[in-house]
Amino acid sequence: MSQTLKLGQPSNMFQDEYGHLINGEWVSSASGEVIDMINPATGEHLSKIQSGNAADVQRAVAAAKAAFPAWSKSSASQRQEILFEIASRLKARINDYAMMETLDNGKPIRESMFFDMPTAIGQFETFAGAAYTLQGETHAYEDALGIVHREPIGVCAQIIPWNVPMIMMACKIAPALAAGCTVVLKPAETVCLSLMEFFKEMNDIIPAGVVNVITGYGPNIGEALVTHPDVRKVAFTGSRPTAQKIIQYASQNIIPQTMELGGKSANIVCEDADLDAAVEGAAMSTILNKGEVCLAGSRLFLHDKIHDEFLDKLKGVLSGLRQGDPTDMATHIGPQASSMQYEKVQKYLDIGKNEGASVVVGGSKATGGILDNGYFIQPTIFADVANDMTIARDEIFGPVTSAIRWKDEGDMLEQANNTVYGLAGGVWTRDISRAHRIAQSLETGTVWINRYYNLKPGMPLGGYKQSGFGREFGHEVLNHYTLTKSVVVNLQEGKIGAFDQ
Ligand code: NAI
Ligand code: MG
Description:
Elements lengths: L19 E3 L2 E3 L6 E5 L6 E6 L3 H19 L3 H17 L1 H12 L3 H22 L6 E4 L3 E9 L2 E5 L5 H15 L2 E5 L6 H10 L8 E3 L4 H9 L4 E7 L2 H13 L4 E4 L5 E4 L5 H13 L11 E5 L3 H13 L19 H16 L3 E4 L18 E4 L6 H4 L6 E7 L2 H9 L7 E4 L3 H10 L6 E2 L18 E2 L7 H4 L1 E9 L11
Parallel strand pairs: 7-8, 7-10, 8-9, 10-11, 12-13, 12-17, 13-16, 15-16, 17-18
Antiparallel strand pairs: 1-2, 3-4, 5-6, 6-20, 11-19, 14-15
Helix pairs in contact: 1-7, 2-4, 3-4, 3-6, 4-5, 9-10
1,4-dihydronicotinamide adenine dinucleotide binds next to helix 7, helix 8 and helix 11.
């Protein structure tokens, strides 16, 4: 593993500036403005991206539209070859991509290397195979033959966030490419360095105009992109308020949407659970990507009988973690991805204390040495939390978990479901019927039994309620990038005879 690039050092693995990628060309924004990419561990400048606007959107959509006829008719083997080639180039430069993700986002290099990059690569491999599975159906009738064709939907707008940029880019473009769609991708303005470098590297294999990338602030791009009459679908991952805007934009031309939004998932520990495994799971859920994960089990439901012992153990694990330089393979927890996120999390730490929750561990920003230069927050567990407190309702998106005590299973389930969200959840018990009973009662898109964040390729991922709609990661996502066309062939000779009398 490359450990050569240390915190604060300049790098030659990425460029000083990236343009928009339109029709295979790197171009400046019509605005003439750029946005700085900042290392959140040091505050240092990394690179620059274009600050896009509606004029850039016009050019990008035109390129995607022009590329669609040929790409939509490309063979499955051509699409499969490109997707596999992308995966193998990512593997060849995995150290660089992992390091860029870490420098730009602040996530520990051990996560970029062993979680983000393999997950992103897995998307290209999964959908490389899927290029061949876009079959239609046939129906045999006594007097007719029904054929259902599956066709690519057209130009897709894809808008993604900053927390796991490579995974988000991959889970958006891989199925779209497999399906034969063309894309205008809008990455997050705060973190997108790795994926800009990715598109630079892949520019010789992705045909011009098939994927176009416009960077910049959401409001300057979003409306022009999603309301463009040539855009036929929007896929979005991000916050609820932004989703509400995008759904409004999408209503203008009645285009379909898939929405993967936030969460406030319940991680439920029963009294018969393997406590050490559950403690590790709760610690992971708190600190993975410094809590900037939509799937985080940020409401920890602890059975009364194990409540105190569990929190003692969890405190032990979290206080022993190494927080600091995210480029160091030994580091467990890095800084929040941006000043905005840093301030947001601190605000919730104050809210939790004011609401009367008690701090088991953490509770403030992390200071001392290198921690003073970046956006570091201590891993924090609040106890004595009631499910209606703000810290149990809002998605904090930081290393903060709220523990809620429970005794009665029915009452606990009612509380677990008493949230506007429903993205993921965990259950820890050795009782198999209880595990399934709880899993079936949860209003949520994913439930992990006895291991949190147990993401498996091919398993659909998506929300119930205000966590969104549509499923990604599994084969089902191909339905969102295709439309069916029903063709009915009459098998009877001659006219019906409807007007013979
Ligand atoms: P956001 O939803 O504003 O940003 C996500 C993407 O949407 C970015 O590319 C952004 O530029 C774009 N965007 C923003 N306004 C837009 C508009 N009017 N039209 C089109 N695109 C637009 O999320 P933000 O502000 O970065 O983070 C705020 C909170 O959202 C976080 O603290 C977290 O709670 C939640 N969030 C959830 C994510 C998830 O994975 N579900 C990912 C990122 C944030
Ligand atoms: Mg925003």
